[in-house]
Design goal:
Elements (H helix, E strand, L loop, with lengths): L13 E5 L3 H13 L3 E5 L2 H10 L4 E5 L7 H9 L9 E5 L4 H9 L4 E4 L4 H47 L4 E6 L4 E4 L1 H7 L3 H4 L13 H13 L4 E8 L5 E10 L9 E8 L1 H31 L6 H57 L5 H28 L2 H5 L2 H16 L2 E6 L8 H22 L3 E8 L3 E8 L6 H6 L5 H13 L3 E7 L3 E9 L3 H7 L1
Parallel strand pairs: 1-2, 1-3, 3-4, 4-5, 11-12
Antiparallel strand pairs: 6-7, 6-10, 8-9, 9-10, 12-13, 13-15, 14-15
Length: 544
């Protein structure tokens, strides 16, 4: 047998030899040391217990017949200790009876060597059990990795389920005939039906007859073309309410299912349809007004009594202008109202549910553990709903913008932004910016909000800076990051979805009479400039 050459990653095996006969003890220790093992000789059972407790060996060679404490007693005591029970014990004894060997294995021994022993036999059994011990340790490590992997997969599955069910749009899985195979919670709420009532039902039955041909044509295109398809249709809820929705679908063939399936995202666009109808009415009114003006001009020279009609026309024009301004004002006021309702009603209701669930948790202390787990999971969902409601309210219209002003609103947004993304953001602003009108302060806030959102999504930056400073006739906002650059002209001129945020920022600034520009270059990150003029008397004071 060749001596062991320990490798760097595997330490020299540590063997404890216990025998009350000095000759046997020295003989075994010398033989094992010669073959590269680290050996600790111990002459009694009591000393063996202390030696194991001070330093845990990889293997124990244990004599049976010893004064004060036999080998059986030593092994029994070791196996009773959870920290020491896994140490393999090989008994060495002159007792050759079958009953002695059976007792040795009963108290926890892994092997039995009869005296007088042969060196080759001892070495072979020692090496075998050390290798078995090493394999056992490696197996336990693999089991730990497998358990951790399983826990990670279960965690990812739970996160995916939450993202799917609580997505802002309805998701449906349909077969080629339009039957609903799967639906998320948003989709069920959108249609006003329970998930169990929707499954295996044909989605076309919920669509009004006038829109049904468009939907069926859309479904055929989805299964015929690999590209994404879309259509607009009107649907009827269970309570009879009709609403408009957009459908976006892509085919999703699966080898696990006998039929082709497609994934369809459904979004409620009733508000958009109403806005388009209102815009058409405004256009019709504008055309009517123009016709009246033309008629007034033609008859003014010959009919003096049409002057009264001309005054009425001017009044109508003024009403149209006021109506246009009112639409913009009502839009922002509606955001405020929705934000406050979300904060004051929905959030408080969810918190009440959570408190109630916590009370149930206290009362169920004597119930089975499974009930506790269900309550805990429900509490987590409720807590997440509260966070979503808060976040939704902040995105619609942060109340701090109206209550405290632009700078506190930006501080609050940046604090939450840094917490969610890990990107460090600093703000440097002069207090006079609060003298700007509400519309201009709102525009600056939305520009900063959209710009930092783009930084988190696309820039891969670690730091961003926001500054607001005064100029002779304007207020200038700058947002700069240290992330990767992009081609500004290419982004603004293509039809990519990502450009809508940049165009939206530019549109907001131009609506209040300002200018908007972007600079982006490799190694310097991206800088956004928004400059708003000071025109009102109160604003002129802050820019002077």
């Amino acid at each position: 047998m060749k001596p062991i050459k320990p490798e760097a990653q595997h330490p020299v095996p540590n063997i404890l030899v216990v025998d009350d006969t000095p000759a046997n003890l020295n003989l075994l220790a010398g033989m094992l040391k010669k073959h590269g093992y680290r050996v600790r000789p111990v002459p009694s059972g009591k000393l063996a217990i202390k030696a194991v407790q001070s330093e845990k060996p990889d293997l124990i060679l244990l004599d049976i017949r010893m004064p004060e404490m036999s080998g059986y007693e030593v092994c029994t005591q070791l196996k009773a200790d959870a920290a020491l029970k896994d140490i393999p014990v090989i008994f060495i004894s002159a007792l050759a009876e079958t009953a002695d060997k059976i007792k040795a294995f009963t108290v926890g021994g892994v092997d039995y060597i009869t005296k007088p022993f042969q060196f080759e036999e001892v070495e072979a059994r020692v090496q075998t059990h050390l290798e078995l011990r090493q394999l056992q340790i490696e197996l336990e490590m693999q089991n730990d990795k497998l358990r951790n992997g399983r826990d990670d997969m279960e965690s990812l599955l739970a996160k995916y389920t939450d993202l799917y069910d609580f997505a802002p749009v309805g998701y449906f899985s349909l077969d080629a005939r339009g039957r609903i195979m799967e639906a998320n919670l948003t989709g069920t709420r959108l249609l006003g039906l329970a998930r169990s009532e929707l499954l295996n039902q044909n989605l076309s039955r919920i669509i009004i007859p006038e829109s049904r041909p468009d939907f069926l044509s859309f479904l055929e295109r989805v299964f015929a073309c690999p590209e994404s398809q879309s259509c607009v249709a009107a649907l009827v809820k269970e309570d009879g309410t009709v609403f408009w929705a957009t459908f976006r679908g892509t085919s999703a063939f699966s080898t696990k299912t006998p039929h082709n399936r497609c994934r369809v995202a459904v979004s409620d666009i009733t508000a958009l349809k109403l806005a388009e109808e209102a815009q058409r009415n405004l256009d019709d009114m504008a055309l009517t007004n123009q016709a009246l003006q033309d008629e007034i001009i033609q008859r003014k020279a010959v009919e003096e009594d049409l002057r009264q009609s001309e005054q009425q026309t001017r009044l109508l024009m003024e009403q149209l202008r006021l109506l246009s301004r009112r639409i913009l004002t009502v839009q922002e006021e509606e955001r405020k109202r929705i934000s406050r309702e979300l904060h004051d009603e929905i959030t408080q209701t969810l918190i009440g549910i959570n408190v109630h669930l916590e009370t149930l948790s206290w009362e169920a202390a004597i119930n089975p553990k499974e009930l506790q787990k269900k309550i805990a999971r429900t509490q987590k969902l409720v807590e997440k709903s509260v966070d979503i409601a808060h976040q939704f309210a902040q995105e619609l219209r942060p109340t701090v913008l109206d209550d405290l002003g632009l700078i506190p609103a930006l501080h609050a947004f940046m604090k939450n932004f840094m917490k969610e993304t890990g990107i460090r953001v600093t703000l440097n602003a002069f207090a006079g910016a609060e003298k700007l009108s509400s519309e201009k302060r709102t525009a600056l806030y939305r520009v900063a909000q959209e710009a930092l959102t783009n930084v988190a999504r696309h820039a891969r930056a670690s730091r961003a800076e926001v500054s607001i400073r005064k100029l002779p006739d304007a207020v200038h906002m700058q947002i700069k990051d240290n992330g990767q650059s992009f081609e500004v002209d290419q982004i603004l001129t293509t039809h990519a979805h990502g450009r809508l945020g940049l165009l939206g920022m530019r549109e907001r600034v131009e609506m209040v009479g300002g200018t908007f520009s972007i600079e982006s270059s490799p190694g310097s990150g991206t800088t956004i400039h928004a400059q708003i003029p000071c025109k009102k008397p109160a604003e002129e004071n802050l820019c002077s």
